[in-house]
Specification:
This is Integrase family protein. InterPro entries: DNA_brk_join_enz, Integrase-like_cat_sf, Integrase_catalytic, Tyrosine_recombinase_XerCD. The chain has one domain: Intergrase catalytic core (hpI Integrase, Chain A, Orthogonal Bundle). The protein contains ten helices and three strands; from the N terminus they run αααβββααααααα. Helix 1 packs antiparallel against helix 2, helix 2 packs antiparallel against helix 4 and helix 7 runs parallel beside helix 10. The relative contact order is 0.18. The N terminus is likely disordered.
Protein backbone atom coordinates (compact mmCIF):
# COMPACT_ATOMS: atom_id res chain seq x y z
CA UNK A 1 0.00 0.00 0.00
CA UNK A 2 1.35 3.44 -0.90
CA UNK A 3 1.39 6.15 1.74
CA UNK A 4 -0.28 9.45 0.83
CA UNK A 5 -0.27 12.48 3.12
CA UNK A 6 1.02 10.30 5.93
CA UNK A 7 -1.72 7.68 5.53
CA UNK A 8 -1.89 4.34 3.73
CA UNK A 9 -3.99 3.83 0.61
CA UNK A 10 -6.73 2.17 2.67
CA UNK A 11 -7.05 5.31 4.78
CA UNK A 12 -5.36 3.94 7.90
CA UNK A 13 -2.21 5.46 9.42
CA UNK A 14 1.09 3.58 9.09
CA UNK A 15 1.75 1.19 11.95
CA UNK A 16 4.79 3.24 12.94
CA UNK A 17 2.55 6.23 13.75
CA UNK A 18 0.17 4.26 15.96
CA UNK A 19 0.80 4.42 19.68
CA UNK A 20 1.37 0.79 20.58
CA UNK A 21 0.14 -0.48 23.93
CA UNK A 22 2.57 -2.43 26.12
CA UNK A 23 2.68 -6.06 25.08
CA UNK A 24 2.17 -7.31 28.64
CA UNK A 25 -1.53 -7.91 29.08
CA UNK A 26 -2.02 -7.97 25.31
CA UNK A 27 -0.61 -10.81 23.19
CA UNK A 28 1.56 -12.11 26.05
CA UNK A 29 0.87 -12.67 29.72
CA UNK A 30 3.07 -11.56 32.61
CA UNK A 31 5.18 -14.71 32.17
CA UNK A 32 5.79 -13.98 28.50
CA UNK A 33 3.50 -16.74 27.23
CA UNK A 34 1.52 -15.94 24.10
CA UNK A 35 -2.22 -15.52 24.43
CA UNK A 36 -3.25 -16.23 20.84
CA UNK A 37 -3.73 -19.40 18.82
CA UNK A 38 -1.38 -20.03 15.93
CA UNK A 39 -2.70 -21.00 12.51
CA UNK A 40 -2.02 -24.68 13.22
CA UNK A 41 -3.80 -24.49 16.57
CA UNK A 42 -6.83 -22.80 15.00
CA UNK A 43 -7.01 -25.54 12.38
CA UNK A 44 -6.70 -28.26 15.04
CA UNK A 45 -9.44 -26.57 17.08
CA UNK A 46 -11.85 -26.51 14.14
CA UNK A 47 -11.15 -30.15 13.33
CA UNK A 48 -11.79 -31.15 16.93
CA UNK A 49 -15.02 -29.14 16.90
CA UNK A 50 -16.31 -31.27 14.04
CA UNK A 51 -16.73 -34.12 16.53
CA UNK A 52 -18.69 -32.02 19.04
CA UNK A 53 -22.50 -31.69 19.30
CA UNK A 54 -23.95 -29.51 16.56
CA UNK A 55 -24.66 -26.45 18.70
CA UNK A 56 -21.17 -26.53 20.18
CA UNK A 57 -19.71 -26.91 16.69
CA UNK A 58 -21.52 -23.83 15.39
CA UNK A 59 -20.50 -21.80 18.43
CA UNK A 60 -16.86 -22.75 17.89
CA UNK A 61 -17.14 -21.82 14.22
CA UNK A 62 -18.55 -18.38 14.98
CA UNK A 63 -15.83 -17.66 17.54
CA UNK A 64 -13.04 -18.83 15.23
CA UNK A 65 -14.19 -17.19 12.00
CA UNK A 66 -15.43 -13.83 13.32
CA UNK A 67 -13.17 -13.08 16.29
CA UNK A 68 -16.17 -12.10 18.42
CA UNK A 69 -16.23 -12.20 22.20
CA UNK A 70 -17.97 -15.22 23.69
CA UNK A 71 -20.62 -12.98 25.27
CA UNK A 72 -21.28 -11.38 21.86
CA UNK A 73 -21.77 -14.81 20.29
CA UNK A 74 -24.20 -15.89 23.02
CA UNK A 75 -26.22 -12.70 22.47
CA UNK A 76 -26.75 -13.52 18.79
CA UNK A 77 -30.34 -13.85 17.62
CA UNK A 78 -31.57 -15.35 14.36
CA UNK A 79 -32.38 -11.97 12.79
CA UNK A 80 -28.71 -10.96 12.98
CA UNK A 81 -27.47 -13.75 10.75
CA UNK A 82 -27.63 -12.08 7.35
CA UNK A 83 -27.59 -15.01 4.95
CA UNK A 84 -28.08 -12.85 1.84
CA UNK A 85 -25.39 -10.37 2.86
CA UNK A 86 -23.12 -13.19 4.11
CA UNK A 87 -22.63 -11.36 7.41
CA UNK A 88 -23.06 -11.99 11.09
CA UNK A 89 -24.06 -8.84 12.94
CA UNK A 90 -22.83 -8.50 16.52
CA UNK A 91 -23.78 -5.99 19.16
CA UNK A 92 -20.51 -4.61 20.50
CA UNK A 93 -21.06 -5.29 24.19
CA UNK A 94 -17.97 -3.43 25.43
CA UNK A 95 -19.22 -0.07 24.17
CA UNK A 96 -20.43 2.53 26.64
CA UNK A 97 -23.90 2.46 25.13
CA UNK A 98 -26.15 -0.24 23.77
CA UNK A 99 -27.21 -0.56 20.16
CA UNK A 100 -23.73 -0.40 18.59
CA UNK A 101 -23.51 -3.10 15.93
CA UNK A 102 -20.87 -4.36 13.54
CA UNK A 103 -21.16 -6.74 10.61
CA UNK A 104 -18.46 -9.37 10.13
CA UNK A 105 -18.19 -11.39 6.88
CA UNK A 106 -18.61 -15.13 7.46
CA UNK A 107 -17.64 -18.15 5.34
CA UNK A 108 -20.54 -19.67 3.36
CA UNK A 109 -20.02 -23.04 5.05
CA UNK A 110 -20.47 -21.47 8.48
CA UNK A 111 -23.63 -19.64 7.40
CA UNK A 112 -25.02 -22.87 5.97
CA UNK A 113 -24.27 -24.67 9.23
CA UNK A 114 -25.99 -21.95 11.26
CA UNK A 115 -29.06 -22.19 9.04
CA UNK A 116 -29.14 -25.98 9.27
CA UNK A 117 -28.58 -26.24 13.02
CA UNK A 118 -30.49 -23.16 14.19
CA UNK A 119 -33.26 -22.90 11.55
CA UNK A 120 -32.27 -19.34 10.64
CA UNK A 121 -34.47 -18.95 7.56
CA UNK A 122 -37.49 -20.46 9.28
CA UNK A 123 -37.12 -18.18 12.29
CA UNK A 124 -36.62 -15.11 10.12
CA UNK A 125 -39.82 -15.86 8.22
CA UNK A 126 -41.83 -16.34 11.41
CA UNK A 127 -43.56 -13.57 13.30
CA UNK A 128 -40.97 -11.29 14.87
CA UNK A 129 -38.33 -12.23 12.31
CA UNK A 130 -36.24 -14.10 14.87
CA UNK A 131 -35.46 -11.01 16.95
CA UNK A 132 -35.96 -12.86 20.23
CA UNK A 133 -34.60 -16.24 19.11
CA UNK A 134 -31.14 -16.66 20.58
CA UNK A 135 -28.99 -19.22 18.81
CA UNK A 136 -27.50 -20.65 22.00
CA UNK A 137 -29.29 -20.99 25.32
CA UNK A 138 -26.20 -21.94 27.33
CA UNK A 139 -24.71 -19.64 29.96
CA UNK A 140 -21.34 -17.97 29.50
CA UNK A 141 -19.54 -20.31 31.96
CA UNK A 142 -21.03 -23.34 30.20
CA UNK A 143 -20.01 -22.02 26.79
CA UNK A 144 -16.49 -21.30 28.10
CA UNK A 145 -16.17 -24.87 29.37
CA UNK A 146 -17.43 -26.31 26.07
CA UNK A 147 -14.88 -24.33 24.07
CA UNK A 148 -12.09 -25.24 26.49
CA UNK A 149 -13.01 -28.93 26.15
CA UNK A 150 -12.63 -28.66 22.37
CA UNK A 151 -9.22 -27.08 22.84
CA UNK A 152 -8.20 -29.90 25.15
CA UNK A 153 -9.36 -32.43 22.54
CA UNK A 154 -7.31 -30.57 19.93
CA UNK A 155 -4.18 -30.93 22.06
CA UNK A 156 -3.67 -27.18 22.32
CA UNK A 157 -2.40 -27.43 25.88
CA UNK A 158 -2.94 -25.43 29.04
CA UNK A 159 -1.31 -22.11 28.19
CA UNK A 160 -3.15 -18.78 28.17
CA UNK A 161 -3.89 -19.22 24.47
CA UNK A 162 -6.14 -22.20 25.25
CA UNK A 163 -9.26 -20.11 25.88
CA UNK A 164 -12.04 -18.36 23.95
CA UNK A 165 -9.98 -15.15 24.18
CA UNK A 166 -7.16 -17.04 22.49
CA UNK A 167 -9.48 -17.61 19.53
CA UNK A 168 -10.22 -13.88 19.33
CA UNK A 169 -6.53 -12.99 19.44
CA UNK A 170 -5.82 -15.75 16.91
CA UNK A 171 -8.37 -14.25 14.54
CA UNK A 172 -6.66 -10.86 14.81
CA UNK A 173 -3.23 -12.34 14.15
CA UNK A 174 -4.54 -14.36 11.19
CA UNK A 175 -6.23 -11.30 9.70
CA UNK A 176 -3.09 -9.15 9.90
CA UNK A 177 -0.96 -12.03 8.58
CA UNK A 178 -3.31 -12.28 5.58
CA UNK A 179 -2.78 -8.60 4.78
CA UNK A 180 -6.19 -7.34 5.91
CA UNK A 181 -5.95 -3.57 6.52
CA UNK A 182 -5.80 -2.67 10.20
CA UNK A 183 -8.84 -0.41 10.02
CA UNK A 184 -10.88 -3.33 8.65
CA UNK A 185 -9.64 -5.67 11.40
CA UNK A 186 -10.51 -2.94 13.91
CA UNK A 187 -14.08 -2.83 12.58
CA UNK A 188 -14.49 -6.62 12.65
CA UNK A 189 -13.19 -6.92 16.21
CA UNK A 190 -15.12 -3.92 17.47
CA UNK A 191 -12.09 -2.07 18.83
CA UNK A 192 -12.61 1.57 19.78
CA UNK A 193 -8.95 2.45 19.13
CA UNK A 194 -6.77 1.42 16.20
CA UNK A 195 -3.84 1.13 18.61
CA UNK A 196 -5.59 -1.87 20.19
CA UNK A 197 -5.78 -3.60 16.81
CA UNK A 198 -2.16 -2.78 15.98
CA UNK A 199 -0.86 -5.23 18.60
CA UNK A 200 -1.58 -8.05 16.17
CA UNK A 201 1.17 -6.76 13.90
CA UNK A 202 3.60 -7.78 16.67
CA UNK A 203 2.78 -11.50 16.45
CA UNK A 204 5.66 -13.95 16.84
CA UNK A 205 6.57 -17.33 15.40
CA UNK A 206 5.18 -18.38 12.01
CA UNK A 207 2.92 -15.34 11.90
CA UNK A 208 5.83 -12.93 12.31
CA UNK A 209 7.83 -14.71 9.64
CA UNK A 210 4.85 -14.54 7.30
CA UNK A 211 4.56 -10.79 7.85
CA UNK A 212 8.30 -10.25 7.44
CA UNK A 213 8.40 -12.34 4.25
CA UNK A 214 6.57 -9.54 2.40
CA UNK A 215 9.84 -7.58 2.51
CA UNK A 216 12.10 -10.41 1.35
Amino acid sequence: MVAHNGRLSDGSPPISTIEMKPMSGQLFDHDGQRKYLTADEREAFLKAAERAPREVRTLCGVLAFTGCRISEALALTADRVDLAGRLIVFESLKKRRKGVYRGVPAPPALLDALDLVHNIRQLQQARGGGRNARLWSMSRPTAWRQVKAIMDAAGIGSGPQASPKGLRHGFGVAAVSAGIPLNMVQKWLGHAQLSTTAIYAAAVGDEEHHIASRMW
